[in-house]
Specification:
The protein is an alpha+beta fold and 176 residues long. It has six helices and six strands, in the order ααββαβαβββαα.
Length: 176
């Protein structure tokens, strides 16, 4: 095989945008996660059972800097996301029962303290009146959040990259 003599030398200029991209992710990562969470929340709200509509309207998205949570009396508290994460949840008090069901049936009895009090054997207040006990049945699950996450996996990633790409292009002054 013949050797090449006096080969061509080419100059190559490489521009590294990795540091710029990492800065964008640190600065605008929560915004991108919020956009991805919005997609999951809309899919989960569409799948949620709608007897009264309270469950579907109780959905919220929470990141480190933004949240759509609304506090309501007797509803669940907001779950804070981990660092660099997003939480999509439902604050309705019965959301976990519909999502995962209840495995067993049972009975709610008055507490021992309530039994000793003069007010009688009252366990719960239902519909404005106190009742001595309550029975509950086994409930099958009707998941809505889990399937919504599975359904929107690709769309979430696309939305996340779309937001970060637009921020990077704004920073570098590329395109419109």
């Amino acid at each position: 095989m013949a050797k090449r003599r006096g080969g061509m030398k080419r100059k190559l200029q490489v521009e590294w945008y990795g540091d710029d991209f990492l800065a964008i992710v640190r600065k605008h990562g929560d915004e991108a996660l919020f956009a991805a969470g919005r997609i999951v929340l809309s899919a989960a709200s569409r799948r949620a059972p709608r007897r009264s509509g309270a469950l579907a309207s109780s959905g919220y998205i929470s990141t480190g800097t933004q949240s759509t949570f609304r506090q309501r009396k007797y509803w669940r508290k907001e779950k804070k996301p981990p660092e660099g994460g997003v939480t999509v949840g439902f604050a309705a008090p019965h959301a976990h029962l519909i999502e995962s069901g209840r495995r067993r049936s049972g009975k709610i009895l008055p507490s021992k303290r309530r039994q000793r009090m003069r007010t009688g054997n009252l366990a719960l207040k239902i519909g404005g009146r106190y009742v001595a006990s309550s029975r509950f049945k086994r409930v099958s699950s009707h998941p809505f959040l889990g399937p919504a996450i599975e359904e929107t996996k690709e769309t979430m990633a696309q939305e996340l990259s779309k937001v970060l790409r637009s921020k990077l292009e704004q920073m570098l002054g590329i395109g419109a």
